[in-house]
Design brief:
Blueprint: E1 2-8, H1 12-26, E2 30-32, E3 41-46, H2 51-70, E4 75-80, H3 81-93, E5 99-101, H4 109-119, E6 123-125, E7 148-152, E8 154-155, H5 166-169, E9 174-175, H6 178-190, E10 195-199, H7 217-225, E11 232-236, H8 245-253, E12 260-262, H9 270-275, H10 282-295, E13 300-307, H11 314-327, E14 331-336, H12 354-377, E15 383-391, E16 399-402, E17 408-411, E18 422-431, E19 434-440, H13 442-446
Parallel strand pairs: 1-2, 1-3, 3-4, 4-5, 5-6, 7-10, 10-11, 12-13, 13-14, 17-19
Antiparallel strand pairs: 8-9, 15-16, 15-18, 16-17, 18-19
Helix pairs in contact: 11-12
The chain binds S-adenosyl-L-homocysteine (SAH), iron/sulfur cluster and FE3-S4 cluster.
Iron/sulfur cluster (SF4) binds at residues 157, 159-161, 164, 166-167, 201-202, 239.
């Protein structure tokens, strides 16, 4: 039996691609190993969204090079977005690589390995399959899905935000056929998945391209919700311009669709939004969320923001802090702008000095920590519903999971409780974006006078 070591950088799309490579290789006789030293094949699935992601990849290859030098039979492949972006240049920089592949070539991983065996010459595969999204081979999975599982519904991105490499590295949007998605989700649920997270760079654009009988995103939501056994449904990531009224209504209609939305704003300033080519104003963004909140008052919101985009003035930066405060996000991913090769923004002068970027990022993080802490405090003493995803790495706690609002949770040991269970947890402590406490029995959660305390939804 041969062994493959797989490492993944970047987003959940890359994790999904790695899983697909694992599945294909499993059926070509490879088993996944966690030890690089034991591997016959090493694949690094890379990301190029920011410069830091690239640096991490190069430092990992620095560690892998000696393994290849010591064992020329070891096959070393670089896959993913950096592969698509830099192609041949990577073979020049790392001549010990056997191949470089882009994200659209992932399904050919077994052929790539065969080609190395056949020719022994390094090669680059970075073509795009423009006809269709991929299909997942109908083969037994190498491992059971976790209680919370991502399902990629759309590949690529057609938005072309000026700072972003994704439209170039992942190509045009293509949706996966609903029937195939329903089949895949049924299979995951039959094998233990409780929560399904529909995944794409812009899930709201689902159905626009690539389907034989197009259906819009909200119809897919209603279709998925009918699959028996799903306890929770989520989706990510959303783009404000494609987020429809019908999707807002779906939150109200679909019980299992949890009350959380990740809706990246990127900046709170109209000039910046224009320069980023987000194609909406901050007023339109705010109106959309106001409408959503009026239909679904109990919704938790999270975002991505970019600090220090070219031309960002103090005033523009303050507008970002203002929108964060106003919306009251429960969490944010905050990034310092990183110029990316081949993107339109790369032509602009990276005008905000590094020091200013650092300082603005610190301020943004401080504001978000304060917003998160305020919301976290309001959970103390209350009960939250947690889907247990696995063992907790936090000392003193046995399990970790998530609430419907997507807060992390750590739970003390309790007999009979196991991953995949949904339990009521009485929150005793909050740290960052984690709610920590004890699992209550059904009886304790139901009875407001039990030691478990008050019931809150
Ligand atoms: N499709 C999603 C997310 C794409 S990548 C969306 O449209 O929101 C995840 C996040 O990385 C982006 O939301 C953005 O905040 C950030 N990002 C992308 N390119 C970047 C760059 N060049 N510099 C800094 N942050 C970037
Ligand atoms: Fe990048 Fe914009 Fe597409 Fe998101 S929507 S992946 S930020 S181009
Ligand atoms: Fe990175 Fe590609 Fe995802 S650039 S964030 S791995 S789409």
């Amino acid at each position: 039996m041969k062994q493959v070591y797989l490492d993944t950088f970047g987003c959940q799309m890359n994790v999904a691609d790695t899983d697909r490579m694992e599945l294909i290789l499993f059926h070509s006789g490879y088993r996944r190993t966690q030890e690089k030293e034991d591997a016959d094949l090493i694949l690094v699935n890379t990301c190029s969204i920011r410069e830091k992601a690239e640096q991490k990849t190069f430092s990992l290859f620095g560690e892998l090079k000696p393994l290849k030098m010591a064992n020329p039979d070891l096959i070393l492949g670089l896959t993913g977005c950096l592969g698509q972006q830099d192609g041949k240049k990577l073979l020049q920089r790392m001549p010990y690589l056997d191949f470089v592949m882009g994200p659209d070539q992932v399904d050919g991983i077994a052929q790539a390995v065969d080609r190395v065996h056949d020719t022994g010459k390094p090669f680059v595969w970075t073509g795009f399959d423009q006809e269709k999204a991929y299909t997942i081979p109908d083969l037994p999975l190498p491992k059971a899905p976790g209680p919370s599982t991502f399902v990629n519904i759309i590949k690529g991105c057609d938005k072309f935000c000026t700072f972003c490499v994704v439209p170039y590295t992942r190509g045009r949007e293509k949706s996966r056929e609903p029937e195939e998605l329903y089949r895949e989700i049924r299979h995951l649920v039959d094998h233990g998945a409780k929560e399904i997270i529909l995944l794409g760079q812009n899930v709201n654009s689902y159905g626009k391209r690539g389907l034989e009988n197009p259906i819009p995103f909200h119809e897919l939501l209603y279709g998925v919700a009918e699959i028996p056994g799903i306890e929770r449904l989520r989706f990510t990531t959303s783009h404000p311009n494609d987020f429809t009224r019908e999707t807002i209504r779906a939150y109200r209609d679909i019980d299992i669709l949890v009350n959380h939305l990740h809706l990246p704003v990127q900046s709170g300033n109209n000039e910046m939004l224009k320069a980023m080519r987000r194609d909406h104003t901050i007023e339109e963004y705010r109106d959309l969320l106001m409408e959503l909140k009026s239909e679904v008052p109990d919704i938790a919101l999270s975002t991505d923001v970019i600090i220090g985009f070219p031309g960002e003035t103090d005033k523009a930066f303050e507008d970002t802090l203002k929108i964060m405060q106003e919306i009251g996000y429960s969490s944010s991913f905050m990034f310092s702008y990183s110029p990316r090769p081949g993107t339109p923004a790369n032509e602009l002068t990276d005008s905000v000095p590094l020091e200013t970027k650092k300082q603005r990022l610190q301020e943004t993080i401080a504001l978000q920590s304060q917003l998160t802490a305020e919301q976290g405090q309001s959970y103390i003493g209350k009960n939250v519903e947690v889907l247990i995803e696995g063992r907790s790495p936090k000392p003193g706690y046995a399990f970790k999971g998530r609430t419907p609002h997507y807060w992390s949770a750590n739970i003390e040991e309790r007999e009979g409780v196991k991953p995949g269970d949904t339990v009521n947890v009485k929150v005793e402590k909050v740290s960052g974006h984690s709610l920590n406490g004890k699992a209550l029995t059904r009886e304790e959660a139901r009875n407001p006078f039990s030691p478990g305390g008050r019931r809150v939804g």
